[in-house]
Specification:
By secondary structure, the protein is α/β, with parallel strands linked by helices. It has two domains: 133 residues, Lyase, Ornithine Decarboxylase, Chain A, domain 1 (Beta Barrel); 218 residues, Alanine racemase (TIM Barrel, Alpha-Beta Barrel). The chain has eleven helices and 17 strands. Strands 1, 10, 11, 12, 13, 14, 15, 16 and 17 form a nine-stranded mixed β-sheet that branches. An eight-stranded parallel β-sheet has the order 2-9-8-7-6-5-4-3. Helix 5 links the parallel strand 5 and strand 6. Helix 5 runs parallel beside helix 6. The chain is elongated, with a radius of gyration of 22 Å.
Length: 373
């Protein structure tokens, strides 16, 4: 099977680029005395996780991070038991986690809520729990110096095993120095929270930090036990813009077909719209706005310059051709690959990967991915 045989739109994964990205993160973490707990919310694939384990020769991942119960069920069904469900737990989901743990899994949960902490402590099968700490993102979590941190710990009692923070605000950085500063602030905040809890008599075993940018930008990680990252596996245009990786490190693209032309306007219509690509516009705030995605040729090569998906309808994408590129021959049915702004959101629309190995049309594997919640 070849790329030209595939129905469109569909998701293409370059295994060679993926392996390179996995090796890069494994090398970045190696020697820093921490475990890598890859976040599988992006890949949602056992096949990808197996490669992540193989890449960590010196310190293979001992567990994973998940963002949905569906992921937890999927991975535990494939024998991966050590997980952190890194989204604030709710009562109904607490019951679902308890069911998985009763069957042999070790799914840990997070909370920053006193009432939910009480529900956890009162449960007949309470999961091990981490308190979510806010190190600057201001999404969820308690500030490291918040007195409520100790109140939560007192309610959770022996169910408390650690703290967890996420430096999502690192995405606003535009320099290596800024990323390094955010990474260090993340580390310091998590450690400060952990030390406050230990001083109050709590056994804090896990100090969990991470985002792909800070994982790669961090210096020494003294006091941290594990680092979480996910998008580094596939990369995307936004991560390339903030310097997490290069454009050549984007492993995922959406294969699409040309379905029409607006020749006078130098526009090309394709059958990948907002459902296949997502409507993420994160690159709009960077130096190189890529619209809803950057168009590449069939082999994923940048022969179309900065031709971007300028508009995205439900099932239509409108590509504005780069002014510096001569009008390419694109009869109806010509296949193009589109690099995503935000690979997590783009991949979420698809239930499988068509895997290639480098700049080749040959499909070497088809890997399923878990979907839903």
């Amino acid at each position: 099977m070849r790329l030209s045989d595939l129905p469109t739109p569909c998701l293409v994964l370059d295994r060679a680029v993926l392996n390179r990205n996995l090796a890069r993160m494994a090398k970045a973490v190696s020697g820093k005395g921490v475990a890598l707990r890859p976040h599988m919310k992006t890949a949602k694939s056992m096949d990808v996780f197996k490669l992540a384990v193989a890449a960590g020769v010196d310190a293979p991942p001992r567990g994973i991070t998940v963002s949905t119960i569906a992921e937890a069920e999927y991975f535990s069904g494939h024998g991966v038991m050590d997980m952190i469900y890194a989204v604030g737990i709710t009562p109904q989901k607490l019951d679902q986690v308890a069911k998985l743990n009763a069957a042999g899994a070790d799914v840990k949960v997070i909370t920053d809520d006193l009432a939910m902490a009480a529900r956890i402590a009162e449960h007949t099968n309470p999961p091990r729990t981490l308190i979510e700490v806010d190190c600057g993102e201001h999404r969820g979590g308690l500030a490291p110096n918040d007195m409520k941190l100790l109140e939560l710990a007192a309610v959770l009692r022996n169910n408390l095993v650690g703290v967890l923070t996420h430096a999502g605000h690192s995405y606003a950085s535009r320099s290596a120095e800024s990323l390094a500063d955010v990474a260090e602030a993340e580390r310091v905040g998590a450690i400060f929270a952990a030390e406050r809890l230990r001083a109050s008599g709590h056994d804090i075993q896990i100090v969990s930090i991470g985002s792909s940018p800070t994982a790669l930008a961090s210096g020494q990680l003294e006091g941290v036990t594990e680092i979480r990252a996910g998008v580094y596996m596939f990369g995307d245009l936004f991560q390339a813009e903030i310097g997490t990786h290069g454009h050549d490190d984007i492993a995922v693209s959406v294969l699409s077909s040309v379905i029409g032309h607006r020749q006078a306007e130098r526009r090309v219509l394709v059958d990948a719209g907002s459902i296949a690509l997502s409507k993420d516009r994160s690159t709009a705030d960077t130096s190189h706005d890529c619209g809803y995605g950057l168009a590449m040729d069939l082999l994923g090569l940048p022969t179309l310059g900065h031709s971007i998906v300028q508009r995205a309808y439900q099932e239509h994408g409108v590509i504005a051709l780069d002014d510096n590129v001569s009008d390419p021959a694109m009869p109806i049915g010509t296949k193009l690959r589109i690099l995503p702004n935000h690979t997590c959101l783009t991949a979420a629309a698809h239930d499988r990967y068509f895997v290639v190995d480098g700049a080749s049309e040959e499909i070497v594997a088809i890997w399923p991915r878990v979907c839903g919640w």
